[in-house]
User: Fold this.
Amino acid sequence: MCGQVPVAGLNSQPEHIKQAVEGSLRRLKVNVIDLLYQHRVDPNVPIEDVAGAVKELIQQRKVKHFGLSEAGVQTIRRAHKVQPLTALQSEYSLWTRTLEKEVLGLRQQVVERLQLSRHLHRPHDAPEAALL
Assistant:
């Protein structure tokens, strides 16, 4: 974290994510976590590193799906390139319409891709036009 100011309560370093998952599996007495969410984007860790850590956990069958909360469009796109997202969550406010213009359109693309990939049986078989 050289030159970066830590954000209170956030630590999305890949090693910390893996330790947190191991601890959760142990405490919950389960073998797999259905949905692993990053609830707040850590500005000190590239989202590609976070998605890469989650991808490894999915490959190890410790996690089934990956989701992001309160992430911007570019962050969502960058994460999705590394590990396809299953869930997106954002606070919705009637006071601002930014979410409608940016994130909801992107969510629709994700939903359409997931529906298409179900028909193809494997998400990575989706045609390039369906990818974010």
User: Anything to note?
Assistant: The chain is about 45% helix and 10% strand. The CA atoms of residues 113 and 130 lie 5 Å apart. The helical segments are 14-28, 47-59, 73-82, 98-101, 103-120. Strands lie at 33-38, 63-69, 87-89.
